[in-house]
Amino acid sequence: MLKPCVRLILISQLLLLSTQYNRKLDNYTLTILPDLPPEHLKRFLNTFPKIRTECEQIQECQNILKTFNNISQVQGNEISSAAKEGQESGVCWGHEINCTRELRFQTPSCSGDHTGWVQSKEAQINTFYYQADFGYIQQQINELLLMCEPKFLTDSSLECNKYLKFCRGRNLLFDFRNLAGRAERIRYHMDVLNEGGIKGYCRFNRSLLTEELSHMGALQSWSPELRNFVEADESIIENETICDMVITTPTFLMKIDASYNMYHHFCDFFNLFATLFVNQTHPSAFDLNTQVIIWETYPYDSPFAVTFKAFSKNPVWTLNQVKGQRICFRNVVLPLLPRMIFGLYYNTPLIHGCEKSGLFRAFSEFILHRLRIPFHPPRRKIRITFLARRTKYRRVLNEDELIAQLASDEEYIVKRISFERGLNFLEQLTITRNTDILIGVHGAGLTHLLFLPDWAGVFELYNCDDPNCYRDLARLRGVHYITWEKRHLVYPQDEGHHPEGGAHAKFTNYSFDGKEFARLVSKLANYVRNHKKYNEYIKNASPPREPKDKEEL
Ligand SMILES: *[C@@H]1O[C@H](CO)[C@@H](O)[C@H](O)[C@H]1NC(C)=O
Ligand SMILES: *[C@@H]1O[C@H](CO)[C@@H](O)[C@H](O)[C@H]1NC(C)=O
Ligand SMILES: *[C@@H]1O[C@H](CO)[C@@H](O)[C@H](O)[C@H]1NC(C)=O
Ligand SMILES: *[C@@H]1O[C@H](CO)[C@@H](O)[C@H](O)[C@H]1NC(C)=O
Ligand SMILES: *[C@@H]1O[C@H](CO)[C@@H](O)[C@H](O)[C@H]1NC(C)=O
Ligand SMILES: *[C@@H]1O[C@H](CO)[C@@H](O)[C@H](O)[C@H]1NC(C)=O
Ligand SMILES: *[C@@H]1O[C@H](CO)[C@@H](O)[C@H](O)[C@H]1NC(C)=O
Q1: Which of 389, 391, 392, 399 gets mutated to test ligand 7 (max ligand atoms within 8 A of its CB)?
Q2: Chain segment 275-294, per-residue pLDDT in tens
Q3: Residues of the signal sequence (predicted)?
Q4: Residue 45, ligand 3, Cβ within 6 A
């Protein structure tokens, strides 16, 4: 055991190291290493050992590796048994066929009962792993089928998985000429392409593709597009006369859900992240030199648009940039979609009793790292963020009273914020990453829970008769979730007015009983205080009998 003061130094060292690591990556991003958090980079290098060898031959690259080894040691991330047993050198993500449980990024925790669902605890954990963790990625990869087979390297190719939820192709021609003449704006359309609208010079197995066309929905699969695939008579790559534009940058075509709603738009981003793993067969898998083309002719506009910078350094395009032309893609990926049947995370049926998906934690860390969101270690006072809605519905009528009550408690640092106004998205993420308890009424702002630290809790004040949405999202991310328990202590303003008529709990405002509110927050605060990772920071940061920290005053 180290003495408290030594630990204190370690913590500041850690923060310094993190900053250095980011700066070095920024400077060096990177001829060899992708821009990833340390725990992710380690796994990347195990997937592509050649890169590690290359890196070791360059002094500066070597230094980066040393720095991140130090960070992950000090940070003691949940590398769990692998790290303890000194097996770190073999760590993997979890979708790889030979990745053992001890070496995975994280294993779900299933403390809830499994009876009535599956036969055994083991089966329960596995079910969750294949529903919502890296097991899900493994399944997507296992399902891949070669739809159009190249004879030579310069030919086209098309690979897709079951129901065409993910595809990737080389040297494919997409014909957008008819789009130029269309009067209506395109979004969720299934008729963007005409018959023969996608061409590849390769041996096409039509019956194989036809078998997978059954999920014919705009956001469910790529069936509406790929039913138009035909074999080309001549080579596409060698023939510039048949392409109006050749895009050599690896491209993601994206059918997105809703750009203004955080819950739905992050479902788009989440699936793009998952796609990086399904397509991870080459070290360029985490490259930022990619092109995103959104499958719409509405101009792309979103308060969360900056999130695309985690995936691509190039400006986002829409179909407007390609309409009227025949586009030849050297490398094109049709990513997993936001509303797949049994997809993630919209309406996902999850097995009872399990939580903590490594895939979700990886997503959270990836976004926070790539967007350079600063991290401040927690303190003894619990940092509470209260999401104030500035919308027409689901306002908390006695918000002032509830917040004043929390603020009067010495144990808490309370912030009230409205994500609808003022703060840009990076500032919002900075608050979330440094919050221990997030409180808010049912609403898309609660999607921020994805970016809370591992020890955090979320309090959905009232779920408005939609109990699964954020409870499940919290489960997936692995943060603790509570909601209002006593119905007679919440007071709706009226019965609610659905815009299409009828009473509806989502369309009114609420007051909450103050005493009950305080009880629930204190319950959550206790959960945080007892969390192992939170405690590691507290022990390190606040040695006993020291004068009060400045920041706490
Ligand atoms: C980053 O690069 C700049 C310009 O090449 C250089 O001046 C600076 O020292 C570098 N910083 C680090 C941390 O290596
Ligand atoms: C990593 O930690 C070791 C031991 O604490 C130290 O000697 C070394 O200088 C550190 N390396 C870097 C690159 O920070
Ligand atoms: C899995 O197999 C790959 C390729 O054979 C190998 O490089 C890697 O070390 C293996 N990983 C584990 C955890 O055994
Ligand atoms: C197409 O795929 C099916 C199913 O895998 C297979 O049975 C058939 O032989 C393939 N046809 C050709 C022409 O390769
Ligand atoms: C290119 O396409 C044109 C028009 O279809 C065709 O006449 C020509 O033979 C093709 N060239 C090659 C090299 O395939
Ligand atoms: C998908 O994987 C292929 C093959 O490894 C790679 O060349 C391509 O760049 C990747 N596509 C994207 C969009 O990242
Ligand atoms: C809820 O509060 C908002 C803002 O004060 C108000 O515009 C709205 O009419 C209220 N809703 C109901 C059902 O009273």
Answers
A1: 392
A2: 999 999 898 999 999 999 99
A3: 1-24
A4: no
